[in-house]
């Protein structure tokens, strides 16, 4: 790819059904991803299954993906100020890779079988794919909450991560992953009757907004606090999100999002923050 010019809602946990397993297997067989080289240049297409299966314990082929980070202003419980929080999702127990772990808002792939998702200019294909998947996974209407012009490409990561110990060892992630950021202008949960998000239980078990202080406590490895809004540890997170957190890239995404949210009042800050991002760079992460 060329350089691109309630705090908490939860679905009830339930056993994996044959229908759910069939849905995940159907996606594996019938969705086709873009194979890429180490510089993110497309070299072919392959089924999602081929892109994630560890045959003979080898790495699956490198393929294109995206990770979306959706922020919104939230009232700080420790004060009167309003800060941005990040929408997280817990992956469904029926997912073949990293079931039950927490990750950023939405992670998936542009597909060769979906019109327009092969467009590389200005990351259009990836941004369109993020609209399609946020509707599919979280039931969030992209026309209202995630218009294309509000989805911003910042950088890319390359990582390999075999499945978690508790999951099927046949599967792994080996992705060249575009990091996309969007900022909602208002808190969508402010209306108690809000139904702006309707999670697909085949994809998502729960959602939660987290603050920067929550992230800081994870980096410090603070012990779980029953008085906190969460009781996570680093092991609760997908390996790519954990690496973004521990390398500081997640905080840089947050810095950009906060500068963007205050664009009208402090354009110079946003300009400086935006210039820190090299859109041509590919960060190589070591996931464990």
Automatic annotation (TrEMBL):
<dbReference type="GO" id="GO:0009240">
    <property type="term" value="P:isopentenyl diphosphate biosynthetic process"/>
</dbReference>
<feature type="domain" description="Nudix hydrolase">
    <location>
        <begin position="61"/>
        <end position="234"/>
    </location>
</feature>
<comment type="function">
    <text>Catalyzes the 1,3-allylic rearrangement of the homoallylic substrate isopentenyl (IPP) to its highly electrophilic allylic isomer, dimethylallyl diphosphate (DMAPP).</text>
</comment>
<comment type="pathway">
    <text>Isoprenoid biosynthesis; dimethylallyl diphosphate biosynthesis; dimethylallyl diphosphate from isopentenyl diphosphate: step 1/1.</text>
</comment>
<protein>
    <recommendedName>
        <fullName>isopentenyl-diphosphate Delta-isomerase</fullName>
        <ecNumber>5.3.3.2</ecNumber>
    </recommendedName>
</protein>
<keyword id="KW-0414">Isoprene biosynthesis</keyword>
<dbReference type="GO" id="GO:0005737">
    <property type="term" value="C:cytoplasm"/>
</dbReference>
<keyword id="KW-0413">Isomerase</keyword>
<dbReference type="GO" id="GO:0050992">
    <property type="term" value="P:dimethylallyl diphosphate biosynthetic process"/>
</dbReference>
<dbReference type="InterPro" id="IPR000086">
    <property type="entry name" value="NUDIX_hydrolase_dom"/>
</dbReference>
<dbReference type="InterPro" id="IPR011876">
    <property type="entry name" value="IsopentenylPP_isomerase_typ1"/>
</dbReference>
<dbReference type="GO" id="GO:0004452">
    <property type="term" value="F:isopentenyl-diphosphate delta-isomerase activity"/>
</dbReference>
<dbReference type="InterPro" id="IPR015797">
    <property type="entry name" value="NUDIX_hydrolase-like_dom_sf"/>
</dbReference>
<comment type="similarity">
    <text>Belongs to the IPP isomerase type 1 family.</text>
</comment>
